[in-house]
Amino acid sequence: MKILGISGSNREDGNSYSLLNDILQNVSSIETKIIQVAELQIRPCEYCSELCSEKPFECAIEDDFKVLFEEMKSADGIVIACPLYYYIPSKFQAFMERISCLDYYTEEKHSEGLSPLLGKPCALLAISATGGHNTLQVLNHLQDFALMLHMRPVITDFWPFIGVSAKGGEEKDAVLKDAKAIKQAKELLRLLVGEIEKTMTS
């Protein structure tokens, strides 16, 4: 079993990375990997409709978009951690725009149901300076993104139900002081593993 963590922050080793690292380290019998979008070169979508998805889900722009997309395809489950900017950090938003364009033109030029992420379980984490309701815009945006790609966001029985809301700050590893969010994120990871196991045995 392989779980990919994606830190959507523009800042390397920020709170999004710290939260992912904390819940994914020392997870027994599971291969884990974290990719920080901040370390990648991802250009905005150029809406090159004639070239987009000549082959299903193949982008015409040559940069690190493919690195992240390939890792997503090879993972059994995905955890996305993203901070509140306005609303999504620009580099991760660029990635989301690129992959949404690929999804649209793949269906237009080929057919539906070709998404390599179809049915893939995913878990969503959002971090802001104050936590709570301020992260809802991020979680809703991430959920829309996951559903567009036909992934399966994991739902919890605790608020806000579609993921985990965590409190961060400018201080390094500030999010690790949010004990409630850490506990909930670990429970969310446990639920994600359960969903992956169901997928692998079905």
Write up this protein.
With 202 residues, this protein is of the alpha/beta class. Helices cover 38% and strands 16% of the residues. The protein has one domain: Rossmann fold (3-Layer(aba) Sandwich). The mean pLDDT is 94. Strands 1, 2, 3, 4, 5 and 6 form a 6-stranded parallel sheet that branches. It has 5 helices and 6 strands; from the N terminus they run E-H-E-H-E-H-E-H-E-E-H. The longest helix is centred in the C-terminal third of the chain and has 23 residues, at 179-201. Helix 1 crosses helix 5.
Please give the radius of gyration in angstroms: 16 Å
Order of helices and strands: EHEHEHEHEEH
Q: What count of helical segments does DSSP give?
A: 5
| Arithmetic mean pLDDT | 94
How many discrete domains? 1
The CATH architecture can be named as 3-Layer(aba) Sandwich
- Shape call: globular
Structural class: alpha/beta
CATH homologous superfamily (4th level) name: Flavodoxin domain
Quaternary structure: single chain
Question: How much helical structure, as a percent, in the residues?
Answer: 25-40%
CATH domain fold name: Rossmann fold
Tally of strands:
6
Uncertain stretches of 5 or more adjacent residues? none
Strand content: 15-25%
Largest pleated sheet: 6 strands, parallel
Report the CATH C-level class.
Alpha Beta
Please report the distance between the alpha carbons of the first and last residues: 15 Å
Name its key features.
202 residues, Rossmann fold, six-stranded parallel beta sheet, 6 strands, 38% helix, globular
What is shown here, in short?
The chain has helices at 15-24, 65-74, 90-109, 136-148, 179-201; strands spanning 2-7, 31-36, 77-83, 121-128, 152-153, 164-167.
